[in-house]
């Protein structure tokens, strides 16, 4: 093996995938167990959102996050925990109430979005670096809000993964770095193929990689049918990788996946290209992450 990468399992997300694939974990217990099983299959990192156990929809309840994190930490399986800090950013346009948004609008302040990260102190968290058209929804993350959130993350000691859905997000992520709001060597994540963000292809990864600082690390992923092809392409370009039911619910056309199956397939693809997986502890040491007990 000539190279090592981190593999993230994004195990649940917050989208309307629960009714489309019964393997999408919903309760804190299910989410934690799926994270643990993904780690056993080879994942370095478990990226988690919380869902309402009754509805399957998004949850901002800190106790749901706490149960997920506690269950993972109390298990005998080591995995880096990466909590979303995207929180409530969904604005649903409505001609009836254009200023307030329509049904389903869910906006949290920077402090509210940061709360699970600040209280539970995972090793990592995501930081969405801009607003975007997400289908017919607008994900809202204004620049001054992001500066506040980045400051809170830096103060917590948690490593932010700077999520860029388009090239403008990349420019602002670079600005956060330039302003000293990101500690240590920055870590970027290129989120590709989302309608209507940047395309999921090698040219996009190559361009975005060329625009990050020299001391930066990056990962990239594609959604839907582009998830598994992007694993190999990203790793060959020197990036870390991500799979999971947050971004794709199929193992292949017509075959519903589990998180463990997607991780297993990614591991096979990486090994076939002489690329090995970092262990969680190797990643903590290389990227100066918090230790599971909250220390460096």
UniProtKB/TrEMBL annotation:
Pfam families listed in its UniProt record: BKACE
InterPro entries in the record: Aldolase_TIM (IPR013785), BKACE (IPR008567)
Alphabetical keyword list: Metal-binding, Transferase, Zinc
Required cofactor(s): Zn(2+)
Plastid recorded as keyword: no
Protein name: 3-keto-5-aminohexanoate cleavage protein
Organism of this sequence: Alkalibacillus silvisoli
């Amino acid at each position: 093996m000539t190279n090592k990468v981190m593999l993230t399992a994004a195990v649940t997300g917050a989208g309307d995938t629960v009714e489309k694939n019964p393997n999408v974990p919903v309760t804190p217990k299910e989410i934690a167990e799926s994270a643990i099983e993904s780690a056993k299959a080879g994942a370095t990192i478990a990226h988690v959102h919380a869902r309402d156990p009754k509805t399957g929809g998004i949850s901002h309840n800190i106790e749901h996050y706490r149960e997920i994190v506690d269950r993972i930490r109390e298990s005998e399986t080591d995995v880096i925990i990466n909590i979303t800090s995207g929180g409530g950013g969904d604005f649903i346009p409505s001609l009836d109430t254009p200023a307030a948004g329509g049904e389903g609008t869910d906006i949290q302040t920077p402090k509210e979005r940061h709360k699970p990260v600040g209280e539970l102190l995972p090793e990592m968290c995501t930081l969405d670096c801009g607003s975007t058209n997400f289908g017919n929804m607008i994900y809202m993350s204004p620049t001054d809000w992001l500066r506040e959130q980045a400051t809170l993350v830096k103060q917590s000691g948690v490593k932010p993964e700077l999520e860029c859905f388009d090239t403008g997000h990349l420019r602002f992520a670079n600005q956060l770095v330039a302003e000293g709001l990101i500690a240590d060597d920055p870590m970027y994540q290129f989120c590709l193929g989302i309608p209507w963000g940047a395309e999921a292809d090698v040219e996009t990864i190559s361009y975005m990689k060329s625009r990050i600082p020299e001391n930066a690390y990056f990962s990239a992923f594609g959604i839907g049918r582009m998830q598994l092809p992007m694993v190999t392409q990203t790793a060959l370009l020197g990036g870390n990788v991500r799979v999971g039911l947050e971004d794709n619910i199929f193992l292949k056309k017509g075959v519903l996946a589990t998180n463990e199956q997607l991780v297993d397939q990614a591991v096979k693809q990486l090994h076939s290209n002489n690329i090995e997986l970092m262990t969680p502890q190797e990643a903590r040491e290389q990227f100066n992450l918090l230790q599971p007990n909250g220390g460096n």
